[in-house]
## 1
Amino acid sequence: MTEASCIFCKIVSGDIAADIIAESPNTLAFRDIAPLSKVHLLVIPKKHYQNVVELQESSPAVLGELMSQATELAGQHTNGSFKLQFNTGTEAGQTIFHAHAHVLSDNSKDGS
């Protein structure tokens, strides 16, 4: 997948709408359109990296920013019980080849 065809790059550029819930200088967070749990948020670097390994190798500071944003959002949207998940490679379930973290929980902060 090229950056030009990447759905997450299109969300960053504003070409595709998303329910954006947070943004930092290098990251963007939004709700997953096909949630797998009550809380299913995605946190992505604004710049295209194929997966979390490439992100770590190329820009560990951006990975740190992504992790900070993910844990802050987990605190805001869950009761403190959550999964933070990166899928790397097809066999691991990665379907969009732009690095991203899933914040998942069946326990939302508001109890819904």
Note: Residues 3-105 form a domain with the HIT family, subunit A fold (CATH 3.30.428.10).
## 2
Amino acid sequence: MSPAAAWVGDRAIPVALVDERIAALRAGPYAARLPDPHSAEGRTMRRWLVQVLATEAVVEHEAGRLGLAPDGAPPRAVTLAEALRTGGVVAAVTAAHPLARRLRDRVAPHRAAEDGQVRDYYERNRDRYPGAYAEARAEIAARLGAAERERRFARWLDERFAALVRLAPGFEHPGDPRHPDATHRH
């Protein structure tokens, strides 16, 4: 059996799975953009990939706990706004993993934005909404509600990740200052 890069509860994420994902990326259309695997950037990419695999496993664990099954929806592209709001890993997993979207729907249901928030946003963004408030209200309320929902899901998923995931030495979070390749700073 392959050594583990991480554990999600009792489930091991084998190093072999990490290697398979990396091989798929290196065989894909963006291969030329990927860093040399022996460089600090290559090792950091490997650590980020472990974060993605562990997040996917957390989604599967929590969905199973709640009795959710995939709905067959296809993956979709991650928008820059989503990645900035929720963090790249959460946005990527939510976009690519239909089960993550089902889980998000369950643990962070849509809530309408309050009228005061909508009005404030409208007033601050008159260049984007030159028409009457009544014309823009529904669109702004939907946008603000979706953004808040994404943030609530990301916070919940981060909490579940912290509770369930153990990373093996060498597979620490890329921002962990204890490993020599750490360049990611907050």
Note: The mean pLDDT is 89.
## 3
Amino acid sequence: MMKKHIPQILLILFFLSPLNIFASGAEGSEHTLPNPIMVIPFAVLLLMIATGPLFYHHFWERNYPKIALALGSVTVIYYLVFLNDTHSLLHTLAEYISFIALLSSLFVASGGILIKVDKKSTPMLNVLILLFGAVISNIIGTTGASMLLIRPYIKVNKNRIKPYHIIFFIFAVSNIGGALDPIGDPPLFLGFLRGIGFFWFIEHIILVWAPTLIVLMAIFYVIDSRNKGEEVPDAQYSGKIEFKGGKNVIYLAIILLSVFIDPGILKWVPSLAPLPFGIREIIMFSVAYFSFKSADKKILEANEFDFEPIREVAYLFIGIFATMIPALQLIAYESKVYGQELSPGVFYWATGVLSAILDNAPTFLNFLSAALGKYGMDVNVKEQVFQFSLTYPIYVQAISIAAVFFGAMTYIGNGPNFMVKSICERAGIKMPSFFGYLMKYSIPILLPIFFVIWLIVFYGKV
């Protein structure tokens, strides 16, 4: 199974290799802003992700890797040839490798764990599973929680599974749940690296987090109560919860501990610069390999495990990471220019809307930098970031909540969203299109909730 994907992995590495070849070591230097027209490749990729599965499904399924790499190459060539900016490319490459190392290691390690819930599917049982996933997403990350629970969640509901089951799973477990600490979601981890206290997030976000989940679960309960599903005559349930693959829990623990093996956190950790990865990523990829090689094959078969979901994420997000570089740089520039005029409410909506279609981690960092700039502080000085989070918590709160919550608005808002979608489609669940997800679920359900959050917490605040 692993050997089958070696050529594809080599193709990705080939696509990335020019970044190292042309690296000039211009760390931290200023570069010319990209021409706004260079946002077009990102817009095209986003449009094709949205329309491909709907209007030209077979062409898209066969060619999405080539399309993502081709559009990403346009941006890479532009930065190399026209801007002579290798720093931005290397920085993005490092972020992508860190992103895919975490997702792939959690995906593979959780695939070797089998959870069987032998209970009758009911709205209340589903609510409890979703709330459990939301809580543990702060312990093992939104990706870890999503990969651990999505398969048993599907099997519990096998006789009444509908797309809304998966959409609410993405809402609660893959996104909103992980807003209470830096382990939960990458933007918060970046904030922690920059100087925000580890427990700052739970202290300032839980009073928004808890009501949001309660409202979300209430809506889900009402919808799920109307779903009678298919009755199974004489079905017997033991009420037991079976757990197999305990050794993979150790692998999950290693992955989570390795998150903190960073020179920015632990001074004794050596940097591997100028390589675009560190010891953390080496550990994560190693865990992915060894956890797969040592996994119980019966568990993998029971989980219907294969590499297609992570393969799809790897290809699409390398295109997304590359093509969004110009958009992020232009946003960063504009947010600093107009930073003095931005209120917490504006930061909330700007961070949220852009986190729904761009990677929420750099979006979070850009707006955090702009917020600090309002008060003459520097996001690169830990002491100033720490002081800012204590003195002006409303700004950090707005940016943090928006970056995590709005990731649920689209399939590409957060890495686990696409993985969950892919796993479900391979299990035979017909998932809504990109636009269907937006128009039927996220806009009518999430947007009103997010509007109320803005109205209660951030409206009129300065």
Note: Confidence is low (pLDDT under 50) at residues 1-29.
